[in-house]
Write a structure and sequence with these properties.
alpha/beta, five-stranded mixed beta sheet
């Protein structure tokens, strides 16, 4: 048995997931091998994509490797950071000149230094940051 994984955005889903890609994944898996998707996306978003696209896959690896799960959402492994680190890290990011920060946890959210620059997205400031028990990626 062999294992192979592919990034999702811009790699597997470069111009869509066509029949040729689906057949290649199917052939790989039918030969007794394992196929996984890796993404910087959140677990929730990666599960949504998998549910919509329905290509063959054994595992989903989200948050740039912080969360490994089955395709039905069962978490196999999760690396997370204590919530006490979230606010100081976001403050540092914003103080370095970034306009926003994206925090991935159970409930994804963005924090903006200047919501005027990000009108078409959810508008949070650091004061609006929800309480989190942990985070997987900032």
């Amino acid at each position: 048995m062999k294992i192979i994984a592919s990034d999702y955005d811009g790699t597997l889903n470069h111009g869509g997931i066509d029949e040729e890609k689906i057949k290649a994944i199917s052939d790989w898996r039918n030969a007794g091998n394992i196929f996984a998707i890796i993404s910087g996306r959140s677990p929730k978003d990666l599960l949504r994509i998998f549910d919509e696209k329905r290509f063959g896959c054994d595992y989903l690896i989200a948050d740039n490797g912080a969360v490994i799960m089955t395709t039905d959402g069962e978490i196999i492994s999760q690396a997370s950071c204590d919530s006490a680190l979230a606010v100081p890290l976001i403050e540092l990011i914003l103080n370095c000149g970034c306009k926003w920060a994206y925090v991935q946890t159970d409930n994804d959210f963005r924090v903006y230094a200047d919501p005027e620059n990000c009108k078409n997205d959810r508008e949070f400031t650091l004061a609006d940051m929800p309480d989190v028990n942990y985070f997987n990626q900032i």
